[in-house]
Amino acid sequence: MKINNIIFPSYNSSDGLSVDIFIAGCNREPKCKNCYNPTLWDFNNGDECNFKELSMWLFMKAEYYDNICILGGEPLDQKDLLELLKVIYKIKPIWLYTSYELNEIPKEIKQYCDYIKTGRYIEELKTEDNIQEGIKLVSSNQRINQKGVEF
Questions:
Q1: pLDDT at position 131, please?
Q2: Fewer CB atoms < 10 Å away: N or C end of the chain?
């Protein structure tokens, strides 16, 4: 798994201050028209993730942020996503951003996530007023799903 970028602090991806981890690679076809991160379609656009180092860094900085957000590319297209989630899930609540629908997400992935943003970006459904859990979603088909409520 390749990490393209880590943004800290981030105020845009969760209901608090977060660490945003952008994962490289997206297999979705067709690609989302006017995708926010087309450079992250390429699975080689980043640095190899060292799970132990990343989890140690996240743990050491944990008092300074509220959530960990995993975005992409498409995180569910990563063969090592489950391994990453297992390493970091006890540190802080996890927000997973995916273009897949909730019923397409494997149960073993869901068990490590506290919130999952679902739904492709569909330009024809672009909206300015789709706000859930304090997060602005960019197309009306997208949803924030909370563990224990929706899954």
A1: 80
A2: C
* CA dist., res. 72 & res. 26, Å (int): 8
| Cα–Cα distance for residue pair 73/86, rounded to 1 Å | 20
Q: How many separate domains does the chain show?
A: 1
112 near 125, Cβ under 8 Å? no
Is it the case that residue 30 has pLDDT exceeding 80?
Answer: yes
pLDDT-derived band at 69 (thresholds 50, 70, 90) equals very high
Helix axes 51-60, 81-88, angle to 10 degrees: 30
Q: Maximum Cα–Cα distance for the chain, whole Å?
A: 42
Q: What is the pLDDT of residue 101?
A: 97
How far is Cα of residue 103 from the mean position of the Cα atoms in its chain? 17
Cis peptide bond N-terminal to 93, omega within 30: no
Q: Print the domain residue range for 77.
A: 2-146
DSSP structural state of residue 131: E
